[in-house]
């Protein structure tokens, strides 16, 4: 039997990009962007005294709490399925949710730009919502391309993710 000189790659073999940022981390990033956008929009109330530093801290703490809760849910699901775990496995699961916190960073930074009165908190929130919406679109296109989708399919995926940002922007406009 003759073996080929260069064996073809296994279809199940992970590509380098997948090892770089696996799908659960990508999903956590989208979740973090949506969470940060919704929270920033909710914290920016026209009837209250502005406090962009406090709001940035709330976005950060909420992202950290959401990441920890999501990681802890993974720990509980492993225990319920009788898989071995332990404290270190639990901490690793919680730390693996770092994309939720990282995705909140643009919102936090933009809110902090309003602390020294470089612009208003409302402007910071508006810019954060637009930036997060653009990041969602790019994220959707990138993940679709990485999954081997065509450009038209990737653009549709990006538009779908972008729609989530538009919903938050629309809700923010209607509620305020």
UniProtKB/TrEMBL annotation:
The chain crosses the membrane at residues 26-44, 56-75, 95-116, 122-142, 154-175. It comes from the Bacteria. Keywords: Membrane, Transmembrane, Transmembrane helix. The keyword Transmembrane helix applies. This is Integral membrane protein.
